[in-house]
Amino acid sequence: MTTSAVHTPRGPVTRKDVARYAGVSTAVVSYVVNGGPKNVAPATEAKVRDAISILGYRPNAAARALKLGSSETIGLVVPDSGNPFFALLAHAVEDAAAELGYGMVLANSDGSLAKEKRNIRNLAARQVDGVVLASCVFEPELADLESSEIPSVLLNHAAASPGFNSVGVDLEAGARIAVEHLIAHGHKNIGLAIGINVGNELDGREVGWLNALRDAGLPEGPTARSEFDRAGGYAAGKRLLASVNRPTAIFASSDMQAVGILRAIHEAGLSVPGDIAMVSFDGSTESEYTWPALTTVAQPVRVMAESAVRALIGEGRGGELQHRIFPTELIVRQSCGCP
Amino acid sequence: MTTSAVHTPRGPVTRKDVARYAGVSTAVVSYVVNGGPKNVAPATEAKVRDAISILGYRPNAAARALKLGSSETIGLVVPDSGNPFFALLAHAVEDAAAELGYGMVLANSDGSLAKEKRNIRNLAARQVDGVVLASCVFEPELADLESSEIPSVLLNHAAASPGFNSVGVDLEAGARIAVEHLIAHGHKNIGLAIGINVGNELDGREVGWLNALRDAGLPEGPTARSEFDRAGGYAAGKRLLASVNRPTAIFASSDMQAVGILRAIHEAGLSVPGDIAMVSFDGSTESEYTWPALTTVAQPVRVMAESAVRALIGEGRGGELQHRIFPTELIVRQSCGCP
Cys bridge to A335: A44, A83, A278, B222, which one at CB 3.0-4.6 A? Predict the structure, then answer.
């Protein structure tokens, strides 16, 4: 950066000019321009807007960011904002950021580690005040983020990562509740549809399924591993239906997978919960509208998003690193066999 | 803005220092920092990253924005990014912006005109280079946007608005194709589930439904007006099923509504398409996984998003205002009665 850049003329109209013209304080001009934080009476606002229009004033966010050392925005990286679960998460993060006066830049990694790293770099270059990462980075790669020195928080992250703030749910406990509910319905052959995870640890949902079966003295049912989306669930469902020892119940590790499994079951001419009972995981809106409606383990998405955003830009930011784990809740509908 | 703000010291490390330390040009440092536009060999990139880390360099987006008079971001305002249709749209707009090197700030209006106006003001204050509006503003209110002098484009907008670039689909032609398909299946009593629109014009989908029936010499079937989402569809479905002259087929104005209608039909113990055939509108991924899979009129969401983004920040930006209308396409699955 050179000082000449800074002196590039941008028109002489300042906030002070607008305030003088409208007969209000510069603070009031700021409230009108920024839509807050304080409310302005409609008549006053109209005067300020007239002055802005007549004088041709344009607020200079870049100068403000330079002064504050903050762009008052955060970044959010998700694998796919078109996936209903991440769409819900993105809406919740945007709400939480807006609550604190911050904007949210959304970036999709589309499941590509290269694109994810590029997104993080781009966000750093845009000087966001922090990044919420709800994506699929391999932990060793996170070091990159450290070196770029942006505050960050991992969202949708079940395990603690040294050196990072993170927020997640207790996957293992949630899965256990789901499987125990199916056991209580009398099922003895409970299959598992589980997503493909990067990393070398067993997914907490698989651990929860295993432990619940073991504690009940039941054998492991068949498993199918596939993508966490609808198409992945459809493929997993077809495989579970074709297994030698077809399960009488399935625990699906995401609502999206469950939607695909339901399609496979319907296509096979079988019924849910009559022939095969199901419980899934996430608690998305879609799970309420499948046929039959899904009994599901709900994640507290809004609370998690708020917690992640506050860790980045809230009052307690910059404090000790924390790994916050939230509990899940079983929402009972019809797919499990409950009336 | 005062010049003193501009001279606030931000640490002495510049891109030039990094380039000198790493033994590369400042352009190469820029490529590494911004993730492009040109690729950098991994070994070179590692040297630059080491230099950045050792010197503690942080690229200054605010100074760059001040120099360029551009934040290299666009804004997107949607009613609800958690709604799968708008989630898909948001992903497509983000991709199109990223393609041109721009970031995307996402803002939800949650169906509130007051929040929408506040969002637009906030985006203006952040000095985004333009705003894509895929929301529900009343046209008279759009004047506000003009006075704030941000380039803007209306996305998902079927009718032209004087003074604005806009992008939409031919709702009327799409609805006509859907209804004519149901007529070809032999239906003579075709109901309509339609959303609640602001403004005082008939929704193009309702016009298309009406015209297709009229041209075939068929009477109007029952209609139900409700929210464009799943819950709205569920309510509309229950009303259509309870109508004196129950329809043998329904045209639903959105996939979300159709999902709710399917639930109402299943709960009533009826089957689709046996008892009631259906065609819906949008072409979302969810429509492929309902039971039965929905025959739907698909909107070319990605093409529309690209067109909107290019009108804002592409090569032809700033040209004559245009209202671009894209054609829809009937995707035939099972809900209509096709084998």
Answer: A278
Residues A45, A61 contacting (CB under 8 angstroms): no
A162 and A305 share a domain? Answer: yes
Is residue B132 within 8 Å of residue B309, measured between CB atoms?
yes
Beta-carbon-side half-sphere exposure of residue B302 (alpha carbons within 13 Å): 4
> Is the residue at A280 inside a domain?
yes
Task: For residues A262 and A318, state if they share a domain.
Answer: no
Q: What is the CATH number of the domain that holds A237?
A: 3.40.50.2300
Please check whether residue A112 lies inside any domain of the structure. yes
Cα distance from A219 to chain B (closest Cα, Å)? Answer: 32
CATH number of the CATH domain containing A25: 1.10.260.40
Q: Which of A37, A100, A26, A30 is nearest to A59 (CA)?
A: A30
User: The domain containing residue A37 runs over which residues?
Assistant: 3-59
CB < 8 Å to A230, chain B? 285-286, 288-289
Instruction: Residue B80: list chain A partners with CB under 8 A.
Output: 91
* Together in a domain, B112 and B199: no
CB < 8 Å to B69, chain A: 8, 10, 62
Query: What's the domain count of chain A?
Result: 3
Tell me if B107 and A94 make a contact (CB, 8 A cut-off).
yes
For A125, the closest of B59, B124, B149 (CB atoms) is B59
Angle at B38 between CA A1 and CA B315, to 5 degrees: 80
Shared domain for B215 and B102, answered yes or no, is no
Q: Which residues contact A68 (CB under 8 A, 6 or more apart)?
A: none
- Is B21 domain-assigned? yes
> Which chain A residues touch B262 with a CB distance below 8 Å?
289, 291
- Whether ipTM > 0.90 holds is no
Q: Using CA coordinates, name the residue in chain A closest to B30.
A: A125
Does B187 share its domain with B151? no
Query: Which one of A1, A15, A106 has the shortest CB-CB distance to B94?
Result: A106
Nearest CA among B113, B110, B116, B37 for reference residue B75: B116
- pLDDT tens-place values along chain B, 339 residues long: 333 333 333 445 778 888 999 999 888 888 887 666 678 888 998 898 888 878 777 666 666 666 666 778 999 999 888 888 899 999 999 999 998 889 999 999 887 777 888 888 788 777 788 999 997 666 656 666 655 668 889 998 887 777 788 999 999 999 999 999 999 999 999 999 998 876 667 889 999 999 999 999 999 999 999 988 899 999 999 999 999 999 999 999 999 999 999 999 999 999 999 999 999 999 999 999 999 999 999 999 999 999 999 999 887 777 777 889 999 999 999 999 998
Identify whether residues A152 and A180 lie together within a single domain.
Answer: no
The verdict on residue A306 lying in a domain is yes
- Cα distances from B182 to residues B213, B245, B276, B338, in angstroms, run 10, 17, 11, 10
Probe site for chain A from B6, B113, B145, B262 (most A CB atoms < 10 A): B6
Q: Tally C-beta pairs within 8 A across A and B.
A: 226
AA identity, residue B91:
H
Q: With CB atoms and an 8 Å threshold, state whether B34 touches A286.
A: no
Residues B286 and B312 in one domain: no
